[in-house]
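Checklist before submission:
- one chain only
- standard amino acids only
- sequence pasted in full

Submission:
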Amino acid sequence: MASICYEVRERESGNILQQIPCDKPETFLFGHGLMLDVFEKNLEGLSPGALFKFSVDSKDAYGPINPSAIFDLPLSTFTEDDGSIDASVVKIGHIFPMADKEGNRHFGKIIRIMEGRVTMDFNHPMAGKNLVFSGTIVSAKLAEADEIKQVLHPSQ
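Returned file contents:
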């Protein structure tokens, strides 16, 4: 397990897409397919205090934007119990957790609102972007069996 602070920037624009500060590092479990392979490979073997910076092409990160993951849903999908639509919630840019027919959870972002329907984008927010990761390893240790179980099977 490793705790790291880092930022992710879009390579071309330099815009920050994600930032995890060092006073609140994020802890990752390595070696179990929970992160991008390229992310794990670039951090493998680094010790606490080590700095890292690497660039990743979109195809090796979150892939290209998939046009099939952008589609319209009826506005009624967002109807409250009383039959109303909360305009402060159903607006462009809001992200909603949703489930498909198999019960898999996905996050969709409203990108357009039309008469009676909304366009949702279910692509990963970093899809289609070349990325630059940079940061610091705050701590690193071998994960104990109970820590691995807690991460991989949190409800057990």
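Reviewer check: The longest helix spans residues 145-152.
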